[in-house]
Amino acid sequence: MIINAIYIGNEKEAFVEKRFKSYTNIIFSDDNNRGKTIVLQALYYALGNEPIFPESFDYKNFYFVIDINIGYENLIICRNKNNFVIRMFNQIYLYNSVTEFKYFFNKFIFKLPMIIKNEQFKTVELFLFYQLFFVGQDNRISNNIINSGYCNKDDFINMLFSYAGIQNVTTDINPIEIKEKINELMSERNTLIKENQFLKNNILAARVAHYTLNKDAITQKLKNLNNLKTEIIKIQNDRNRTWNRKIKNEILLKELNSLNNTLSEGEVVCLDCHSHHIGYKNQKEGIQFDISNLDIRKNIIESIKSRIEMFSEEYSSLEQQCYIKQSKLKELLKDEDISLENLLMYKQEINQTENADMRIQQIDNIITKYRLSLKQSSSIDESADLKKKALMQEILNEMSKFYNLIDPEGSRIFSNIFTTKGETFSGSEGALFYLARIYAYAKVLKHSFPIIMDSFRDGEISTDKEDIVLQLFSKLPNQIIFSSTLKAEEIGKYNRYENINKIDYSSHKPHHILNNKNLEDFYDIMNILLIKI
Amino acid sequence: MTYIVQSTEKNNAKASDYETKGLLYLMCDHEDADEMYYFVIDFFNDVTSVHRMGHKAWDLQSKGENKLSATKLGRYLVTLYKNYLSDFNFSSYILFVQGISDSILENKDINIFDISNIKKLQQTIIFDSLKAKAIDTSYINKSQIVDDNLQDFLSKVTFVISNKEKHEYIKQIIQNKSSLTIDNSFLTKIFDEIRDVQSAKKNIPTEKMELEKLSDFEPTTKFITSDDIILMILSRLIHKDNIEKQGAPICFIQYVNTLRKTEDEIKDFILDCEADIKRMLFDKNNASSYWKLFFEIYGIIKYNPSLSVSEIYDMIGAERFSIVKHLNFNSAKYFIALIKDGIKK
Q: How far is CA A155 from CA A110, A145, A433, B319, in A?
């Protein structure tokens, strides 16, 4: 994949960057706040990544349009919040969520790795996938993935395995034992739910009876609650709409099967009166081509099935979001400023329900894990473990090799792609660690995505080391997009690199990358996408 | 003078394939291909193409056989000879075969030639074999079997050798007209569809029918037109492309943009229209209305490429659209947009 251009804007202002080349690009400026981070973040954001923009930049007010080439086709993708408009093959595609876009991505751009998540084989989330190629400036963490929560380190590692074509399985499982454990947990869960229900009802009554609160606090609380409520309703609406779309497609599927029967009528006529000649005469239209052929009908059925699958996934992801918001709501409701006496009086019960809630959640998690391992145990590939170890080792070797080339005296050996908690980097070590990792992924997985790193000299990598970094990355077949801020004495330092595309942002007005000079270009691209702003 | 329809045949699969190849040869490769409109099936001969005005015809006999000898060639020419003797105006007499024995040919590297490319001695064998077969058949008046006639006929026959695969014929029709990449198995299936319709046409009874003029074949419906074939292929490609890529046609989005809908509404709106199209494609009983409408839309777009989707819809009128079940005025516009964008590709 090659990025040709990025457009960021709305009806009033815009920024357009079309200078990207298919080899190594460095965006630099003599000072901070010239828009480098916004542009770099925008690239994968437009392709469905989570937004990690500087706080001062209100990304929700802008359209992000990216022009990419995927080998056989040029694509223009526009993202505004979670809406996507894509122009490809002279057709327009509309999607209202990242999940839907992920399906498009998986079908037309790149077959995404699959991992087992919540007992299901699922394509990985885009934000996880992009961590193979992208390092932003903020939120860097070396001991975990970025945005861990719904996905975690294990998912990332499993994604690596899947990318390399290794089956995702684990060994040493005793199915009978696990089934027994599940049964035990289920009965405990049922008991807890019954008790919990009883306690909750009682406490609610108590709360209503003793509701004496400070007025300001009430107002603030109500406002927060209201916001959350609106968000939940919005998610629930989306969820219902998705469900409707899924149901509609399921009905359509059934309907089509019943339509797919020909009922051709004919009539028996006497061709020759006074004789025994009876012939078959076709309908007046005669014999003709069918309205569609088997291939097309098969394609239709497949497309509907994949839509149903897509909407199902979208539905469960919305459900997950809904659950998170609802937990927040509970949290808010929980710390109500009930008077001290009340608190004391009901503390025990509150704690009890609290514990019960936690225990139920814990049980659910364990059961899910058990079920998952049961499912996996049926398809164990013993050689997979060896392959996984080998792949990991290959990545770590590449990382060490990279590191040692840059810092021959450092003699650092990596034992994991994530650092241990508490391990800290000094100076430029952090940046080198991320560079080594992102380089090793490219080298081992041989992926074709653009490698993007914001502020790649973070912590001031020395010029000698930077030379080696750039040399190594330039040798990769991928498109590279780096950014860096230069000190006054370093201005012009990139001029000596011939095979690097230098993009200078020094002249941008601080904090004002968007302007009205680029509006015309921006409107042009919006017209191509048939978007009216 | 009347023409009596006789000696029609029902064949095995390979023979049917060759009849279809013969038809597509006429439609794409023949030097007069542009003039041909009707392809009359198993009526005058295996395939006879007729001018749009019905005054001119090109006659073709196909044989899916290889390494044909001179004796066999002579025998297979008899149906063409019968038409030669009729009063109708046939501009060509074509024997369309898979292969001719190398040993009887002067130049074996050419695929289309007349009798002069056959060795002198073999020419007389062809002559004798044709004459014997003509005498043997019931449908040729014995008084007409005259040497001069036979010689003149043979000098007018075109021999065509074709060894192309099924999909190559279909590819030829869409060649240069399409930016799409299509796999051969899909094209082969289109070929089979043409063959199946062609074979089905053979079952329409016509033996002993008497014709006053060439164009009298028309009421029998024993023909396919070049429009039928082109539109069928176009329709298959458009729908295949649209379903596989799952996007909406650009000119439909232009129409949707005029409707002032929210993003979510647009999404549902398009999904509903797509569902209607899918229903339409699954309802086999709708075929004749579908092709009529398709033809009409195609015609309007072809001659008025700048009209918008809504303008085309208004031009055709709601009445005409109502003949196709499953469409409403929105999905009808989606259908127009599909054809409009499809023609462009």
A: 19, 9, 21, 57
pLDDT tens for B190-220 read 899 899 888 888 877 776 778 888 888 888 8
A392 and A524 part of one domain: yes
Instruction: Provide the domain limits for residue A92.
Output: 2-169+381-528
Angle between helices B13-24 and B184-202 (to 10 degrees): 100
Contact B79, B19 (CB under 8 A): no
Interface contacts (A, B; CB < 8 Å): 136
| Measured distance CA(A325)–CA(A304) in Å, rounded | 31
A48, A88, B15, B238, B249 from A52: Cα distances, Å = 12, 27, 67, 41, 34
Residues A407-416 have pLDDT tens digits of: 887 767 788 8
In a 10 Å sphere around its CB, with 0-12 CB exposed, 13-18 middle and 19+ buried, how is residue A153 labelled? Answer: middle
Lowest mean pLDDT among A143-152, A158-167, A357-366, A379-388: A379-388
Residues forming a β-bridge with B113: B159
Q: Dig out the tokens for A301 from the structure.
A: 């059925």
How many structural domains are present in chain A?
2
The tens digit of pLDDT for each residue in B21-72 reads 999 999 988 888 889 999 998 888 889 999 988 888 999 999 988 888 989 9
Q: Are residues B161 and B297 in the same domain?
A: no
In chain B, positions 96-135, which contact chain A (CB-CB < 8 Å)?
Answer: none
| Interface check A260 vs B, CB under 8 A | yes
